[in-house]
Amino acid sequence: MGLIASGNTDIGRKRKTNQDSYHMSPEHKLFVVADGMGGHNGGDIASQMAVKILPDYVVKNLSMDPVNLLTGSIKESNRSIKHFGETHPELVGMGTTIVSFFFKGQNLYIGNVGDSRAYLVNHKKIFQLSRDHSLVQEKLNYGVYDREAAALDPQKNVLVRTVGFEDDVEVDVFVYKVNKNDIFLICSDGLHGKVSDEDILYLINKFIPDPATANQSAADKVIKALIDQANDNGGQDNITAILVIAQ
Asked: Is 72 helix (H, G, I), strand (E, B) or coil?
């Protein structure tokens, strides 16, 4: 399976620092986005640790079952970030989201904690592959309101699960059988919180009308367009995205 990948991060228009981090390892077919949180430099450090620890763990344990591999890599990140925060009092309470792609064989394995998201674009339709670990998502799960009303909830940024805050963390791992010409996106909430799923789909289809003929330039243009749109819509948060095309 051939992959074309592009990614970038942007500070946005309102924040003084960028607490997002990302990692791309095309040679290992591994891609990670982390959105840090915590006062001062805590979020920066947590996300930077995540995108180093997780890939290191994966590369050292490639013989493991992919589900256990991603679960273990995120749990290792959680332990290391929690310990680092406890040994640096100014960083206590820091944490990060993690969403990761790992391609092996014909399958895509998605590891997720937090509200960064994984998407699939297939036959010009968009599907969310991950599930947010947020208070708003919990309300959606219980039918309190619909997705449109959820976007207006003042508590939409409250997370119920993060990496680095508790001694252990429950990790969601989703498995998807990859089809040729599938397009995948992982991003922080600085993107999906400011650009609707419909507009994400529009921009991907605009620059990649036919995934079979897509190239690196097209993937780069999508990432730039998505980040530009999030900034045009206010850019209140850091913005990070990675696009992967299966060919």
From this structure: helix
